[in-house]
Amino acid sequence: MSTAVSPARIAMSRASLETRSYFRERDSVIFSFLFPVIMLGIFAVVFGGEDVGPSSGAPVDFAQYFLPGMVASGIMLVSFQTLAISLAIEREDGTLKRLRGTPMPPVSYFLGKVGMILVVGLSQIALLLAVAAVAFGVELPTEPSKWLTFAWCYVLGTAGGAVLGIAYSSVPRSAKSASAVVVGPLLVLQFISGVFFVFNDLPSWLQNVASVFPLKWLAQGMRSVFLPDRLETLEVSASWQHGPTALILSLWLIAGLVICVRTFRWQRRDDG
Amino acid sequence: MTTSAIRVRGLRKAYAGVTAVSGLDLDVAHGEVFALLGPNGAGKTTTVEILEGYRRRDAGEVSVLGADPARPDAGWRARIGIVLQSSGGHDELTVQELVHHFAGYYPGARDPDDVIAAVGLDEKRATRARHLSGGQRRRLDVALGILGNPELLFLDEPTTGFDPEARREFWALITSLADGGTTIVLTTHYLDEAEQLAGRVGVIAGGRIVALDTPDRLGGRDHDLAVVRWSEDGRQRTERTAEPTALVAQLAGRLGGEVPGLIVSRATLEDVYLRLIGQPEQTLEVVS
Q1: How far is CA B258 from the centre of its chain?
Q2: Which residues have C-beta within 8 Å of that of residue A131, sequence separation ≥ 6?
Q3: Can you give the pTM of this predicted structure?
Q4: CB A1 to CB B111 under 8 A?
Q5: Chain B CB contacts of A4 below 8 Å
Q6: For chain A, how long is the longest CA-to-CA vector?
């Protein structure tokens, strides 16, 4: 039995394997896949009926205001959190070392992860939007320009989250500590990035801190997609700031790539 | 094509100034089953992982299947099978899924179903790796190691944690691979395993090979003095001798026929091994 080995075919095969593994792991399904949906449900039920809006013009329901934050949060959970934790574990338990000992092309491994994130991430967003629309009556945008904005925000956010997750996977000292070391900081970031609260309500120094990190920009980009344009005045700068958003997300993506290339290891620090 | 599957000259490796391997030489011929023995920290795993392409050496020449493992490429990796010391990972995938998936990495892969059967996991093909027993998991490791039909197979302590029956079955599997012409490099803590499987044994201590021979000749075992034990005057007596028959005849004469508690033995591979790595063998009260 002799067949040609193509990196693309192996990448497809790995993506399918990774996706199956992801959905079989109950923790990952609950804490990264369903988490934004659950949070949306809780917030919509608790704050349902409360409105968020500018001083002039019709306000929107809190469920609608909350949706873009959950979309942004979900993107970071699926890309950054999933990869940072799973790679820390795979490095610790020898999965990566074993793979390195086979002729599997490294690019196929990373493409497999990307494929998994795309499948998981897009299905998560589809589920979020469906729940928001059906259960909470959120109106979804229909203009193509909004969906174009969604597309580039999603791609930059996911790609950046993925490379930063791979880079960050070297930080936890062991697989046991990985969840805590990854989830903790990301949770703090979610609180200060305008995911759970109206960003404008945060003290300005906290807004400045959050502005360094990509989640704030991703959430802002998603607000420009899922909120009516009359809410643009609620932003700190009274603008959706698409230019700075694209720039800062791209800078994080490039920084993440450079760190990955320089620091990625197939083995534990104490092993080789 | 070199004559040796593995050729090592003057291999050196240190970690943060601590020497792990200091001037190691080694040749393993094609088709040979070679066992590397040594205590923990002797440089065994460092040596093997340099050969596997996992670690960089500080100095020395190394050739594995005609290539330098410090610059591994996919073609070279496809000719090598590796069973690492630790098994783990891919917990949520079944035996069937994993073996079929890994087969896709190799241009000349064996039939995945044949391999599953060969390692005795037929009944477990739908079981996730997480739910396999230690021995079954190890057999899965071996399945993944031999899938690519490797010319050279590395086995790092493959049977640690096996029960005796599983170990026998595993030995049969390795023997059948060796009969098929696969070159095998094995590290183990079990002397009986080395004796059973290996054509030659190398003992590594302090970062170099201190003895290298067939299991029955290792460390001059075939020329070793015999050990004769018997009871006399209510005491256990022991004597090492090159002429055990003469000694026994002499004892029989002195003690008038049957010698009480008589045992004549030669050093086991374990005795020789312990002597080679500088550990005292079982305490003997040596007379004469």
Answers
A1: 42
A2: A37, A40, A41
A3: 0.86
A4: yes
A5: 107
A6: 72
- Residues 6 or more apart in contact with residue B281 via CB below 8 angstroms: B267, B271, B274, B275
pLDDT digits (tens, 9 = 90+) for B271-281: 888 888 876 54
Q: Please list, residue by residue across B39-65, b when 16 or more beta carbons sit within 10 angstroms of its beta carbon and e when fewer do.
A: beebbbbbbbbbbbbbbebeebebbbb
Beta partners for B226?
Answer: B241
- Preferred mutation among A18, A27, A104 to probe B, highest tally of B CBs within 10 A: A104
- Look at A95-109, A140-154, B260-274 and tell me which has the smallest mean pLDDT: B260-274
- List, in order, residues 6 or more apart from B18 with CB less than 8 Å away: none
Highest mean pLDDT among A173-182, B2-11, B122-131, B259-268: B122-131
For residue range B37-53, list pLDDT tens digits in order.
988 888 898 999 999 99
Please tell me if residue B77 touches chain A, with a CB cutoff of 8 Å.
Answer: yes
Smallest CA–CA separation between A77 and chain B, in Å?
A: 20
Q: At residue A103, does pLDDT exceed 90?
A: yes
CB A168 within 8 A of CB A80: yes
